[in-house]
Write a structure and sequence with these properties.
269 residues, Collagenase (Catalytic Domain), 7 helices, 7 strands, globular, binds zinc ion
Amino acid sequence: MRGRQRQFLRQSIAIILSLAAFCIGVLHNNLHAEEKLSLPPAQVHPLPPSLAQWTDPKGQGDYFDRVRAVKAGFLVWSHFPIQVYIAPPPQGTLIKPEVWQAAIAQSVQDWQPYLPLSIVASEAGADINISANPPLNKSGQRVRSAETRYEIYVSDRKALAHCVTIYIRPNQSPQYITAAARHELGHALGIWGHSLTASDVMYFSQVRNPPSISERDVNTLKRIYQQPTLLGWPVTKILGRAFGNTFGVMTCRFKNEVQHPDRACLSAM
Ligand SMILES: [Zn+2]
């Protein structure tokens, strides 16, 4: 009789544990399903006409495999023109403000045939902010490299949006300022990676004679703008919280020697 009682007790405990595990499983799946429902699928935006018309008859290829998508997908813009603000250099900088402005404006002009860009007079509402004041490193010194940072937020229109800040050292020749800005703008426009070919603007290291934007750069840009992204599409409140204050950094160390690409760039996300 005692043996039967023990067996009954064991069977009852096993049934209770199975039921508990089943309930926890259902609850977990429901939560998971709810999370999934709050995430809209990444979608492709229509190609901007300037990129839709772009062709490369020589088929010089691209370096799309070197470009990373971030948590929100590819860093593409979907409203044009993209507004660029050029901040004046801080007081005490050797370069004249008008020389700095012209050097940066040239780099904006260089990308203009491929994506519509507009230089705006105010920082407020600008998509890309170009600063002559590099951020501080851990030692409290200004970083010596050029850097591009993006930040993702939920816009007033309840769409997932991003804004970009570019930091460039102003104490170099206008030619190098333009070259550095051209490269960093490539990151800001969506090329979140580096080329291994020295004749591309997005080559990972600065070269003695900075190249102009190559067919390979534009081929890569076009492929990026054909990829899905969450940016520019409506989001739910839950997703907004999930992406709030998300940012990434691309640090480009411009020197005249070749560096290993993995050491030339520190990027987050
Ligand atoms: Zn770079």
